[in-house]
């Protein structure tokens, strides 16, 4: 017989390979299905596990974990857990749980934080996974049975007893931490999508946001109930203080700010307390709330409390309007124009509003991709916005006047202030953009942006597909800007982390300055349900590679769990000895200030959003202009320019069905081009960028010359779509 039969060893090898592949991938742990059930109370579990360390430290450290009725507490040792000196607390029932068997890793996405755990022993790993599964189901069933009690009291922590570590003789009383352990769990989140569409009880389940009138009245009821409960008299003072602060924040403060807004219409309504109030809150409640995780970064998704629990003051209300510097706003220095074909009048609205995506089940798409890079996962075109990554990078130049200002500032420390503010301003446009993702550029795709009104011209190219790398270059008579960026996108069950890798460069030829800085981690929350929102966290370190005279560090602060203040940024410009010369603070979606309140100077404020921006992908006016294709520019573009891409153009025009068909066709064409290259042992060579000595992509300075002569219409260009 000529047919070759596989040997048993070969079959076993193939089967083993598939098994190893499954072991090496993330597996989502299923939650409660089909409604209420009779789940036996699980046994307590305690022991040591490795937990990823907080930023800026790397690696793992050992922590003692104690699991009881679906609540996972951890501290440095068992004695600290017994004393209530906790580092953190996780409601397993409200978390998405994923495991990687081969690496013996457990990830818990609790929405506010992502916890990465690891166990060395296979036996202990299996034991913890089994216990966590049981406790998670038990806790989810408990939440379904007690939809109201879960908001403040743990139904199984009676006032006369308290949880203890197994085999321990010491019994401690309930602490305010035990009582308030579930205070933030207002609703059953998307940790278990199977429950999201099931009516588990006749009682009303709260789906309103935290600051809703329902929650305010609930807090009032809880305040009275706790204050009159004699069985909790030993912790009454702290509880009353906590609830009083929350009521002040939710009821009195917004009314006061609303009244203040009516008096001074120039001040935006910001729901946050003053610096002094935050300090007193932190001191009073630090004993019980020091377990909250406060700072995340690219090196660690979850962290322990920082020793420096400082807050930024209420920027909009504490900084005197008389001290605002309006020199930067609307200022355009005479930066000259660029070569022809640029339009004078630009559009202020998109052709069609964003589509309805409520009929798309993200869970079905993402449930098998926990912990994976989502850049390789195909998404429906409705989840995109009609811009791609090359254009997104151009959005970082929306406030390029800050670079112009830096180029005309003699003092090196003040120049660093403008450079740092420019680095922050690049995140402003993302504030209303958590609902969509940019198109992934295909290999060889390009984009140009010629803006005489802003004094710069910009070109970008997709220089690599695996890994996806986008390179861009912009120049004006005042500065040169370039970067190459690659992203690692990880989905953890409720949230998605976007970790950029690469360095941003700005050169000011007039002073010989060459600034370099990194990007921070971004995280989109409520991926599966609720209102999606984005935050950025981590530290930007800015240095001038041609001078050690000054440097700057800017920290994007992780939102506090018990504080409504969000999107805060603080930084400092220091001299070569580390002495602080300028202090910076602000919010990345509002503005940045230099100095100390109330005499701080406004360095930058965001432009107003266009009318009905919510209906048009949350785009700023600058973003709306990026994909516009005017008759003057079209003949000058190479056929690889993003604005000529069919699927993106059709989505912008509201033709979803045709956009999806074109998207699939363009992706298939890319796969075919890649196969041809592989068969011929060839590699793609970018046309307008080249590798530098430090292995980064830089412009080869040919784009604008070729555009002028002989023109792209006279050149041989690849067919991408």
TrEMBL record:
Residues in PH domain copies: 42-137
This protein's GO CC annotations: cytosol; endoplasmic reticulum membrane; filopodium tip; nuclear membrane; perinuclear endoplasmic reticulum; plasma membrane
Membrane topology: Peripheral membrane protein
Lineage top rank: taxon: Eukaryota
A GO term for molecular function: sterol transfer activity
Gene3D superfamilies, per database record: 2.40.160.120, 3.30.70.3490, Pleckstrin-homology domain (PH domain)/Phosphotyrosine-binding domain (PTB) (2.30.29.30)
The organism's taxonomic lineage, starting at the top: Eukaryota, Metazoa, Chordata, Craniata, Vertebrata
Pfam families associated with the record: Oxysterol_BP (PF01237), PH_8 (PF15409)
Secretion signal span: none
Organism: Cyprinus carpio (Common carp)
Family under the similarity heading: Belongs to the OSBP family.
Start-end of Low complexity biased regions: 1-16
Location (main, coarse): membrane
Disordered, as annotated region: 1-25, 331-355
Subunit structure: Homodimer. Interacts with RRAS. Interacts (phosphorylated form) with VAPA. Interacts with OSBPL6.
Reported function: Phosphoinositide-binding protein which associates with both cell and endoplasmic reticulum (ER) membranes. Can bind to the ER membrane protein VAPA and recruit VAPA to plasma membrane sites, thus linking these intracellular compartments. The ORP3-VAPA complex stimulates RRAS signaling which in turn attenuates integrin beta-1 (ITGB1) activation at the cell surface. With VAPA, may regulate ER morphology. Has a role in regulation of the actin cytoskeleton, cell polarity and cell adhesion. Binds to phosphoinositides with preference for PI(3,4)P2 and PI(3,4,5)P3.
GO biological process, alphabetically ordered: bile acid biosynthetic process
Keyword terms, alphabetized: Cell membrane, Cell projection, Cytoplasm, Endoplasmic reticulum, Lipid transport, Lipid-binding, Membrane, Nucleus, Phosphoprotein, Transport
Localisation per UniProt entry: Cell membrane; Cell projection, Filopodium tip; Cytoplasm, Cytosol; Endoplasmic reticulum membrane
Encoding gene per record: LOC109064977
Protein known as: Oxysterol-binding protein
């Amino acid at each position: 017989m000529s047919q070759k039969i596989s040997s048993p060893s070969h079959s076993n090898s193939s089967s083993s390979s598939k098994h190893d592949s499954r072991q090496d991938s993330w597996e989502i742990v299923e939650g409660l299905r089909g409604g209420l059930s009779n789940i036996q109370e699980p046994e307590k579990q305690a022991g040591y596990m490795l937990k990823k360390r907080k930023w800026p430290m790397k690696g793992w450290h050992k922590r003692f974990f104690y699991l009881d009725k679906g609540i996972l507490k951890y501290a440095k040792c068992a004695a600290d857990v017994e004393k209530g000196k906790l580092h953190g607390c996780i409601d397993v029932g409200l978390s998405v749980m994923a495991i990687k068997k081969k690496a013996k890793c457990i990830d818990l996405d609790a929405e506010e934080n992502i916890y990465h755990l690891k166990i060395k022993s296979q036996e202990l790993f299996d034991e913890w996974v089994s216990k966590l599964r049981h406790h998670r189901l038990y806790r989810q069933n408990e939440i379904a049975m007690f939809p109201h009690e879960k908001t403040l009291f743990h139904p199984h922590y009676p006032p006369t007893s308290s949880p203890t570590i197994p085999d321990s003789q010491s019994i401690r009383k309930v602490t305010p931490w035990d009582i308030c352990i579930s205070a933030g769990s207002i609703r059953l989140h998307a940790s278990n999508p199977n429950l999201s569409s099931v009516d588990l009880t006749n009682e009303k389940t709260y789906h309103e946001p935290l600051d809703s009138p329902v929650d305010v009245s609930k807090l009032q009821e809880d305040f009275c109930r706790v204050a009159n409960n004699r069985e909790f008299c030993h912790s009454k003072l702290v509880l009353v203080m906590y609830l009083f602060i929350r009521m002040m924040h939710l009821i009195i403060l917004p009314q006061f700010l609303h009244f203040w807004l009516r008096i001074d219409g120039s001040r935006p309504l910001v729901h946050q307390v003053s610096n002094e109030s935050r300090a007193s809150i932190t001191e009073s409640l630090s004993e019980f709330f020091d377990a909250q995780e406060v700072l995340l970064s690219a090196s660690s998704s979850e962290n322990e409390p920082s020793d420096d629990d400082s807050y930024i003051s209420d920027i909009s209300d504490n900084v005197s309007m008389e001290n605002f510097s309006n020199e930067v706003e609307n200022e355009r220095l005479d930066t000259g124009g660029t070569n022809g074909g640029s339009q004078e009048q630009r559009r202020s609205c998109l052709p069609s509003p964003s589509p309805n995506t409520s009929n798309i089940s993200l869970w079905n798409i993402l449930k098998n991709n926990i912990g994976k890079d989502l850049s390789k996962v195909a998404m429906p075109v409705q989840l995109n916005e009609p811009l791609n990554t090359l254009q997104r990078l151009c959005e970082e130049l929306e406030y390029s006047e800050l670079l112009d200002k830096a180029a005309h500032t003699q003092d090196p420390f003040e120049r660093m202030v403008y450079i740092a503010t420019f680095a922050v301003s690049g995140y402003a446009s993302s504030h209303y953009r958590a609902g969509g993702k940019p198109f992934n550029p295909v290999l060889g795709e390009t984009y140009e942006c010629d803006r005489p009104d802003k004094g710069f011209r910009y070109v970008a190219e997709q220089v690599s597909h695996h890994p996806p790398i986008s390179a861009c270059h912009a120049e004006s008579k005042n500065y040169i800007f370039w970067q190459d960026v690659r992203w690692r996108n990880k989905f953890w069950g409720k949230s998605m982390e976007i970790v950029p890798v690469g360095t941003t460069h700005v050169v000011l030829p007039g002073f010989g300055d060459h600034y370099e800085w990194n990007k921070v981690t971004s995280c989109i929350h409520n991926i599966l349900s609720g209102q999606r929102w984005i935050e950025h966290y981590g530290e930007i370190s800015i240095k001038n590679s041609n001078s050690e005279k000054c440097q700057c560090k800017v920290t994007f602060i992780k939102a506090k769990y018990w504080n409504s203040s969000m999107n805060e940024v603080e930084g400092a410009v220091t001299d070569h000895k580390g002495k602080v010369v300028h202090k910076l603070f602000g919010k990345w979606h509002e503005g940045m200030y230099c100095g100390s309140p109330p005499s701080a100077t406004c360095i930058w404020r965001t432009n107003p959003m266009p009318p009905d921006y919510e209906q048009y992908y949350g785009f700023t006016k600058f973003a709306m202009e990026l994909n516009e294709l005017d008759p003057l520019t079209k003949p000058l573009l190479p056929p690889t320019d993003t604005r000529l891409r069919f699927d993106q153009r059709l989505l912008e025009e509201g033709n979803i069905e045709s956009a999806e068909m074109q998207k699939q066709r363009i992706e298939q064409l890319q796969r075919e081009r890649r196969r041809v290259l592989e068969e011929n042992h060839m590699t793609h060579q970018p046309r307008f960028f080249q590798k530098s000595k430090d292995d980064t992509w830089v412009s080869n300075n040919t784009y604008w010359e070729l555009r002028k002569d002989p023109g792209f219409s006279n050149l041989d260009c690849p067919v991408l779509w």
